[in-house]
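DATA CLASS: polypeptide
GOAL: derive structure tokens

***
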Amino acid sequence: MPSGTHQTELDIPIEHVWAFVSDMNKWAPLVPGYMEHHIMHERQSTWKFKGEVGFVQKTVHLRIDITDWQEPEKVTFQLTGLTENVKGSGYFKAMALPGNRTKITSYLGVSAKGVMGPVINPVLKSFVPKTTRELTESIAGKLAIVKTVSV
């Protein structure tokens, strides 16, 4: 399964990180290719992305199911393609560090299924890690801005 993991450290207490990431509406627009999302209930949402995989641009709809909330340290989820035959999983972890710092780690694994899987999965091997890195860095950047504004 094509996957990516990215981590970074922030000069922000874990409680502030959790307050941001536990509210999907605050960070959803930071996902690369984001178009819109709809929260069905606390543990399920649908997302619409515009993605460029190789030379093909597609609009993809996904269902995200939160499988585990461990406040303030971890959110785990499964994703299912609604318009494409893809499956995946991921998590967001926060770990408190000395001096009110927090290490955040994001993981995403996505695999295309069906007839097109063997064609799409090689492209996803570079796309998924890049997307994971970009999202993690975008969240970190937004948290730094929020910290500066609230100080």
